[in-house]
Amino acid sequence: MAKRYYWLKLKADWFSDKRIKKLRSIAGGDTHTIIYLKMMLLSLKDEGKLYFEGVEDSFASEIALALDEDAENVKLTLAFLQRHGLIEIGDDDEYHLTEVPTIIGSETASTIRSRECRERKKQLALEQEVLQCNTNETDCNNLKQICRVERELEIERDKEIEKEGENGIPAPAVYGKFNNIFLSDAEVDGLKAELPDKWEYYIDRLSVHIASSGKQYHNHAATIYKWAQEDTEKAAITGNALKKGIPDYSYSEEDSL
Fold it and tell me: Which of 47, 168, 189, 197 has the smallest C-beta neighbourhood within 10 Å, fewest atoms?
């Protein structure tokens, strides 16, 4: 299962909320506010829920133990949160922090790796652009065009990856000579099974084609299968044509104008 990271997405005016301002205004208010924030962080993986497991005599003492905070301060914080509707007590000793479900952010480790890889690739492209512009203005303009197209592709991929991360679906990993081929683990396994000797060749072939042409493809795995099928059909046609002495005029998608 893909490792997932969680965080709080606090609004810019969170500390301006009247309830938070009231919490900070009471004696020891900053301590109570920190306890509230630590409780929210503790509840992230369960969408704002905390549970009394009976390790201590009370829920307040048990939360104090988990947070390394004073039990009396935690008790006072819980009383304030319950009085102002920021925490609700459910069945089976379940405590629900009502604000947390709307401010949770999460992302899989594979999504983070993909984003970091794209950032490294973008930085490398910018460095190459500077070097190229110092030697050849025409090549510089071409490189700028390629970079512009790649940036547009990255924006679209970022949107798709963020959507996949929100749905709990592992984000695709990056492959290819130019780190511009995105495939899920299942898609890679399928390519290995159906194209055992050529799956890496087709990935690099598509990577070079996208980098040089700026074309966009909705599904990289489907494009590879399509090319492999076309190559197989072309090889069959070429073989039959050679037997009959007919010239081969077929072409691949990369060769088309």
Answer: 197
